[in-house]
Design brief:
By secondary structure, the chain is an alpha+beta fold. The chain has one domain: Beta Complex (Metal Binding Protein, Guanine Nucleotide Exchange Factor, Chain A), CATH 2.170.150.70. The protein has helices at residues 33-39, 45-48, 120-124, 142-146, 150-166, and strands at residues 2-7, 14-20, 26-30, 55-60, 65-69, 74-78, 85-89, 94-99, 107-110, 129-131, 187-188. β1 and β2 (14-20) form a beta hairpin. The longest helix is centred in the C-terminal third of the chain and has 17 residues, at 150-166. The structure holds zinc ion (ZN) (2 copies). One zinc ion (ZN) binds next to α1. One zinc ion is lined by residues 30, 32, 34-35. Pfam families: DUF6151. This is CENP-V/GFA domain-containing protein.
Length: 194
């Protein structure tokens, strides 16, 4: 078992996902508009999004993840009142990841926060599929748009979430206090501002 190193662009925030192996989380591409709008908050959106407007995400159980350094540089925004908590490193404007809250135990790490100086494919395995492919932009292939084996992928995601919930893998959670309050108050960014 290996550790997956996490780091923002400038190194002001670092962290780790412990004991990873291929299949321990869900490595996927999300084409939903909110993930895309989150990426567009940052100057380097082109580095975050793929050519069809998708964001590569690695979903893991929160208890596996730790912030080692730079907690004070972590900021949070929401694109709507009921939207996900979207975390980023304010030191260099690097997206970190998405969470819902303590009752849905997962962190969707954005690839930009996964340190590139390690063999990511070897540590966590390949991308297993895509979600919200109907919202892909540009000229995606029919195969991508159709969301190949989407049902099976959703089942895989749901099964992991359920297991993490049952086994209490939601805590400790690097982004929430035990009472469920986020470590920093999110700012609400209206979609119109994007
Ligand atoms: Zn999304
Ligand atoms: Zn930084």
């Amino acid at each position: 078992m290996e550790d997956l190193k996490l780091k923002c662009n400038c190194g002001g925030v670092t962290g780790v996902v412990s004991n990873v192996k291929p299949g321990c989380g869900n490595r996927l591409v999300c084409y939903c508009e909110d993930c895309r709008n989150f990426a567009k908050q940052f100057d380097k959106a082109d580095n975050i999004l793929n050519e069809f407007g998708g964001t590569e995400i690695f979903q893991i159980d929160p208890s596996r993840m730790k912030i080692n350094h730079g907690l004070e540089n972590i900021s949070c925004l929401k694109l709507s009142d009921k939207g996900l908590y979207r975390w980023y490193a304010s030191c260099c404007q690097t997206p970190i990841g998405n969470t819902v809250g303590l009752n849905l135990p997962f962190v969707g790490l954005v690839h930009s926060f996964i340190a590139s100086d390690q063999n990511i494919d070897l540590k966590i395995g390949p991308i297993i599929g895509s979600v919200y492919t109907e919202h892909a932009t540009g000229n995606p292939s029919d195969e991508l748009k159709a969301g190949k084996s989407k049902a099976r992928l959703l089942l895989t995601i749901m099964r992991k979430l359920l297991i993490w919930k049952i086994f209490g893998k939601g805590s400790p959670n690097p982004f929430f206090h035990e009472d469920g309050k986020p470590i920093v108050e999110p700012s609400l960014v209206s979609r119109n501002e994007i």
